[in-house]
């Protein structure tokens, strides 16, 4: 393989940038890294904006501090690598609520994404099915089995636990429904425990015991300067050439690597590289794979996505509860599915003048007609529904912002990870210097995306003949 290597990263979200940083750290000195981003901005779903003179997240809000095994998460490790560890801040208010029966009730403790490990603790929100979670003398799941979260929980604990607890919690993360989402992908710790335990409550307890959390240790973190500082620092540290407004339209294998076709049809730019990381959502990845790997393209392109809108308002001295926010079950019949009280949850955002920043999420998979509303109508509806849930009229916003994320959140049907593994195996066999990375394959959340990008970079290094500097 000629030196220096030339590596193209298609997609400038946090996955692609994490891949670029890892390549810079581990690939031979002089490796040429180019990031192609079809939009004008890096960061993907990480976007810090400004509202009423205050920095506010218009996309992802925070990252998990720990990975499932209890070690430092990949996001925290990247933050440290980029010299931003001193900027990590944590929520000052952690208690959230559920909007149930027209009022707010605290999210009960002792659950795993809403699935209870102690039935008594959820009684104020949901009534579990009596005696349904019996020991049948065998594990809940077979060795390679995957099921929809809703199917398992409904069978074991009844409809209310799903509708009032599990569904809104999964909806807050994926904008999807528990009845459609893969247990193995969305709740891997519970799936592992369910291959051993005979009851669902027992599986929840086993999963919690397998990843104990130190009392008082923060679960979430963000950066005081906004998550866009992470994006900017990663781009700088990678030393990559960043090409914004550069749409990669085609991908063709060559004798020594890959040819990228970039830009408009009438005047395309052709670029030759040794390896490619595809760090874009599944559907654009499938379009690029259609030529070199049609079977992989078909498998990858089947993944569906949900669209959401995030409505942020600046409210002058509103009466807000001392909560981080609340989740809304679909059964409540509201447009909003979640709300976050930014200036309550994050102490570093609180303002002396009492201006509050509140953000609501709108849009559920399969029921996204609400997103056809104009920005003004969305703001008015969110304002009205927040007032209704809180039981008090909120003041008129002094500023508002609507961020629409079309096709933002992958919907992982049962068997997702097996399908991804098969696609990657086929791709690796045919084209080892072409690697998939991102939320469409490995899961949502900043740490998962960072790890996915770093793993892709390591695969490229191996395929090109190892590291060295």
What does this structure look like?
The protein is α+β, with helices and mostly antiparallel strands and 469 residues long. Helices cover 32% and strands 23% of the residues. It is built from 15 helices and 22 strands. The protein has helices at residues 14-26, 74-81, 149-157, 159-174, 183-186, 188-194, 200-210, 228-238, 282-289, 294-301, 342-345, 375-390, 416-430, 439-442, 446-463, and strands spanning 6-10, 32-36, 48-51, 54-57, 63-64, 88-89, 96-100, 103-106, 111-112, 115-116, 220-223, 241-243, 248-253, 258-262, 269-273, 275-278, 304-316, 325-327, 336-341, 355-362, 399-411, 434-436. The strands form 6 sheets. Strands 8-7-18-19-20-17-21 form a 7-stranded mixed sheet. It has a 5-stranded parallel sheet with strand order 12-2-1-16-22. The longest helix is centred in the C-terminal third of the chain and has 18 residues, at 446-463. The protein is globular, with a radius of gyration of 23 Å. The mean pLDDT is 95.
What features would you highlight for this structure?
469 residues, alpha+beta, 7-stranded mixed sheet
Q: How large is the radius of gyration?
A: 23 Å
What average pLDDT do the residues reach?
A: 95
Largest sheet: 7 strands, mixed
Terminus-to-terminus distance: 15 Å
* H/I helix tally: 15
**β content, as a range?**
15-25%
Q: What class would the helix/strand composition place it in?
A: alpha+beta
Shape: globular
The helix content is 25-40%
How is the largest sheet built, in terms of strand order? 8-7-18-19-20-17-21
- The parts where pLDDT drops under 50 for at least 5 residues are none
Count every beta strand, where a strand is a DSSP E run of 2 or more residues. 22
């Amino acid at each position: 393989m000629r030196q220096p290597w030339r590596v193209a990263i298609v997609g400038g979200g946090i996955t692609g940038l994490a891949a670029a940083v890892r390549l810079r750290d581990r690939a031979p000195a002089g490796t040429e890294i180019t990031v192609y981003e079809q939009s004008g901005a890096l960061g993907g779903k990480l976007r810090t904006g400004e509202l009423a003179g205050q920095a506010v997240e218009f996309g992802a809000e925070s990252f998990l501090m720990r990975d499932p095994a209890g070690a430092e998460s990949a996001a925290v490790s990247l933050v440290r690598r980029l010299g931003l560890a001193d900027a990590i801040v944590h929520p000052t208010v952690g208690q959230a609520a559920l909007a149930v029966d027209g009022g707010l009730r605290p999210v009960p403790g002792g659950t795993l994404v809403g699935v209870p490990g102690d039935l008594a603790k959820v009684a104020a929100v949901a009534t579990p099915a009596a005696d349904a979670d019996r020991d049948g003398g065998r594990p809940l799941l077979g060795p390679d089995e995957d099921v929809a979260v809703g199917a398992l929980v409904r069978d074991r604990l009844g409809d209310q636990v799903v509708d009032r607890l599990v569904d809104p919690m999964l909806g807050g993360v994926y904008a999807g429904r528990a009845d459609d989402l893969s247990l193995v992908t969305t709740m891997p710790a519970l799936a592992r425990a369910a291959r051993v335990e005979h009851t669902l409550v027992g599986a929840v307890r086993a999963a919690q015991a397998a990843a104990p959390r130190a009392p008082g240790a923060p679960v979430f973190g963000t950066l005081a300067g906004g998550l866009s500082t992470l994006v900017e620092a990663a781009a700088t540290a990678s030393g990559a050439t960043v090409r914004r407004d550069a749409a990669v339209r085609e991908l063709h294998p060559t004798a020594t690597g890959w040819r990228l076709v970039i830009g408009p049809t009438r005047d395309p730019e052709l670029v030759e590289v040794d390896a490619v990381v595809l760090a874009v959502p599944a559907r654009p990845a499938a379009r690029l794979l259609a030529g070199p790997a049609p079977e992989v393209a078909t498998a990858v392109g089947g993944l569906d996505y949900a669209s959401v809108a995030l409505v942020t308002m600046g409210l002058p001295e509103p009466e807000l509860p001392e909560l981080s926010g609340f989740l809304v079950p679909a059964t409540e019949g509201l447009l909003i599915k979640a709300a976050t009280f930014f200036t309550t949850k994050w102490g570093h955002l609180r303002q002396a003048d009492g201006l509050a920043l509140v953000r609501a999420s709108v849009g559920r998979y399969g029921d996204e007609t609400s997103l056809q509303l104009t920005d003004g109508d969305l703001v008015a509806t969110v304002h009205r529904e927040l007032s209704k849930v809180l039981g008090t009229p909120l003041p008129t916003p002094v500023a508002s912002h609507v961020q629409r994320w079309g096709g933002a959140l992958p919907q992982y049907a049962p068997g997702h990870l097996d399908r991804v593994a098969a696609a990657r195996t086929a791709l690796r066999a045919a084209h080892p210097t072409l690697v998939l990375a991102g939320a469409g394959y490995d899961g949502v959340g900043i740490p998962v995306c960072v790890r996915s990008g770093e793993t892709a970079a390591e695969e490229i290094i191996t395929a090109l003949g190892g590291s060295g500097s």
